[in-house]
Amino acid sequence: MKSDLFSSEHMVQPSAVPGMTQQNAKSIKYTVNGEMHARQGAMIAYRGSLQFERKGQGVGGMLKRAVTGEGLPLMAVRGQGEAWFAQEAQNCFIVDIEPGDALTVNGRNVLCFDATLSYEIKTVKGAGVTGGGLFNSVFTGAGRLGLVCEGNPLVIPVSPQQPVYVDTDAVVGWTAGLDTSLHRSQSIGSMIRGGSGEAVQLMLRGEGYVIVRPSEATPAKPQQH
Predict the structure, then answer these.
(1) What pLDDT score was predicted for residue 37?
(2) Is 208 helix (H, G, I), strand (E, B) or coil?
(3) Which of 183, 169, 93 is nearest to 134 (CA)?
(4) What is the pLDDT of residues 92-132, one digit of tens each?
(5) What is the pLDDT of residue 67?
(6) Which of 29, 106, 121, 175 is placed for a possible disulfide with 133 were both Cys, Cβ 3.0 to 4.6 Å?
(7) CA angle, corner 53, sides to 69 and 128, nearest 5?
(8) Residue 162 DSSP label
């Protein structure tokens, strides 16, 4: 059988080292040797001896119930093998988090991460009022974090002299050290998003970066069980 489909561009290769790697622009490959964590429903294929366990409140004490902005929990993947993760053909990115780092991420953008990372679910000041991600996950420790984004994200520097105002439905996350607050601007609200009148943005101030996706949040699709 001959086809460009079977070219090296699409063909997966054996893993050289354990852990998270970029399979292509739309998926992440994880070579599991022990345990890792992922968004429920994000596994698209696997091979080897792997077990998938839903993680709920009080189960094993290993994971908190990670309720994201869309109410999607996490799962633990254990064993030895390879697993591939994706989310509705969104673009995938890998972030290396080092000791001392902290990254705040909207739960809808979390795909998978190393078990060595710690996370805490926090309420974002002001953001919940507009429905754009009341709960965000703050990741710390040392390890790799796989993110998804609809389209290519914008990474905007933030400085004390130049705060950044973002649509709460478009923000992906931001680095530690940034303060957030609710910002209202009737003049801007009358012009943005086709004159919808929305006049609330999330203001980020301090020293760091904010990640924004080039689209607004869409209503969550009902999950099939």
Answers:
(1) 95
(2) strand
(3) 169
(4) 999 999 999 999 998 889 999 999 999 887 777 655 544 44
(5) 42
(6) 106
(7) 10
(8) B
